[in-house]
TrEMBL record:
Signal peptide: none annotated. Keywords: 2Fe-2S, Iron, Iron-sulfur, Metal-binding. This is Nitrite reductase/ring-hydroxylating ferredoxin subunit. Residues 4-117 form the Rieske domain. The keyword Iron applies.
Length: 119
């Protein structure tokens, strides 16, 4: 099993993300608002955009009333900077519009202040 310390917990505040390297791979480490860490290949599945140039955001849900929407899951969605594709951080990086597609992801654990990515 390959593993590597990619950053310190203090390097990423809740609701933020950071590009780093895992071996030769450029990875995106995300920290959700609840403090959990996740890691994905830092590349959109569509045309390879660097996801760290996008944003962590939430999603809207339709309330069935015309023109009325509610915002939910703040800080749990990665939005691609090029074409706006959205990926669910807490659900293996699955695309919201097509859950069959997902970002390549890595396992993450925290030991003391170290954020460790591994396969």
């Amino acid at each position: 099993m390959k593993e590597q310390v990619v950053c310190k917990t203090t390097d990423i505040d809740p609701g933020e993300m950071k590009a780093t390297n895992f071996g030769k791979q450029n990875v995106l480490v995300c920290r959700t608002l609840d403090g959990e860490f996740y890691a994905f290949l830092n590349q959109c599945t569509h045309q390879g955009a660097p996801l760290d140039k996008g944003i962590m955001c939430g999603a809207t849900i339709d309330t069935s009333k015309p023109g009325e929407y509610h915002y939910r899951r703040n800080g749990e969605i990665i939005r691609c900077p090029w074409h706006g594709r959205e990926f669910d951080i807490k659900n293996e990086g699955r695309m919201l519009a097509n859950p069959e597609k997902k970002l390549p992801n890595y396992k993450v654990r925290v030991e003391d202040e170290d954020v460790i990515v591994y396969k």
